[in-house]
Amino acid sequence: MDNPTRPPKGRPDERKKTTSMKFAEFLRKYRIPILVVFGLAILAVLGVAIGTWIQGESLKTSTARLEKLESDYSAYSSETDAAKKADLEKSLLASADDLVKKYPRIFAAHKALAYKAKIEASKKDWAASEKDWLSIVAATPDSYLAPIALQGAAQAAEELGANDRAVADYKKLIDSYSKKSVGIPHAYFALGRLDEEAKDYAAALAAYQKIVSTWPDDDWTKLANDRIIFLKSSGLTK
């Protein structure tokens, strides 16, 4: 006989909701936020896909334009006719400016700036050349172009008589790119030369001795040795 004091036993599916029912209720209750989150996730995926496609197309287009610029620069460098060279120069500078404007964060733009800076240097427009070289350093400090650009900027600064800026560029080249650039011995020699101009002969001697001790077989070593001999024989240093 059943115990009248105990509630009647029901089947499990009558006494509690199943997991699927709870999930269905949850979906009904929070369907709008869920749809919003789902929609945002789809948009995010689409955004990444579109961004990747755009980036790929930009890289493809900018690379093609850079190759054309490089070809034109080669023709410009070998051109002997003054009028034709002037036309090529005008076209090159315009192409470089357009590349930089349209693709400022892409390597092609930085390389285009390098060609522009070289042309400006060949015309002895040192202020413009220095500015463009330094723009490359700022835009892509970790690329192989950065130490090259620093050397270009230092040369331009020297031509402008801004030896303090040139010294700063050479020192930055040495401090930041000693393991990445083949121009380090030259940078030390340039510092030595600038130190001589400033009559800081002890610093000049140290720069030349650094070349001799670190790069005994470098092309700049003989010149550094010559300067060491001159400084000592002139009684300027011990």
Helix amount: over 70%
**Which structural class is indicated by helix and strand composition?**
mainly alpha
Question: N-to-C SSE series?
Answer: HHHHHHHHHHH
Low-confidence stretches: none
On the 0 to 100 scale, the average pLDDT is 86
Rounded to the nearest angstrom, the radius of gyration is: 34 Å
Number of strands: 0
Report the sheet with the most strands, covering strand number, pairing sense and barrel closure. Answer: none
Task: Specify the number of helices.
Answer: 11
What fraction of residues sit in β-strands?
under 5%
Overall 3D form: elongated
Distance between the termini: 120 Å
Written overview of the protein:
The chain contains eleven helices and no strands. It is mainly α and 238 residues long. It has a domain at 36-123. The protein is elongated and about 100 Å long. The N and C termini lie far apart (120 Å). The model has no long low-confidence stretch (mean pLDDT 86).
Distinctive features:
11 helices; 238 residues; mainly alpha; elongated
Topology overview:
Blueprint: H1 12-15, H2 19-29, H3 31-78, H4 82-102, H5 107-122, H6 126-139, H7 145-159, H8 163-177, H9 184-197, H10 201-214, H11 219-233
Helix pairs in contact: 3-4, 3-5, 4-5, 5-6, 5-7, 6-7, 7-8, 8-9, 9-10, 10-11
Quick description:
With 238 residues, this protein is mainly α. The chain has eleven helices and no strands. It has a domain of 88 residues.
